[in-house]
Amino acid sequence: MSSDIEVSRFRRRALMLGGSIAAGFATNLFPQVASATGDAPEGPTVHPGEKLPVKEIEEILRTDGKVTNGILAISLDRKDLHVTGPGGIPFKAAWQVNHEFAFQSLGDDKAIVTGELSLLSKETNLVIDQIIKHGLMFQAFHQHFVDLSPQLFHMHFRGIGHPLDLARAVAAVVARTGTPLPQKSATAPKTSLDKDKLEKILGGTAEVADDGVVIVSIPRKETIVLDGVPLKSEMGVSHTVAFEPLAGGKRTAVAPDFALIASEINPLVQSMREQGFTIHCLYNQETAENPQLYFSHQLAVGDAYDLARKIRKGLEGTNTKFKS
To answer: Residue 324's pLDDT band (boundaries 50, 70, 90)?
Structure first.
């Protein structure tokens, strides 16, 4: 494994060039980044013409991805698992039972990757060993929902280095799980839900995944800086809301995943509890992050559009960038 993706060695090289990752590397590559004590800027930029080797990354990870705003997002479904949640809700693979990886180019044949894994308990420490072995940064380990059968745990990591070295490291981590490979995204998946209506209510961007699942992403206004790197919102630092149509077509399971700063946590949780949502977790998923985000997965079952309006009400009290 190339030492380029070892964070400590990367920092030493940055220091030799005249600054720490936060104060040197980030300032040189992203001159709009504020100081560690200042406010995070809006609108990170990526070097013009810098592209990720998308095809090669997809080949290494044995699946296809999607490029949005220069970010390569890859999802691997855990279709080997059959998970049920509270009240017997079926947790389909595209709805909370998958791995998600995002690659952002940093220029000069370097990229940052963030990853989230859905794991059985027996897989967790085997995966941690691989994360550390391959020079990635282990960031978080938690559950998203309680009372699952089997209970799933989620793990987050990041890495900086050559994008193909990062992809090989991610592949080695995934190999310690039971994830079936290769995979291919569904062609033009359909849903019984009105995707455009959900998008309009929540003021975000919606897409249809497998099994009729609709996922809406709503970005925060501020730029999140991770280990000195300003992230685009597609790197997993937005609010996301997942809608899963249930059998019969009249009810939908809705799982918002809120990305919050500390001062927003209690007002939002109070709002969602008053509106009938169950709170399943609160955690951080990144380290060395500015501002620090805390994520809360919540759950409700009912009319998709009524629940979307309730989520929008909760989001109105946060620093969220809604589509007009």
So the answer is: confident
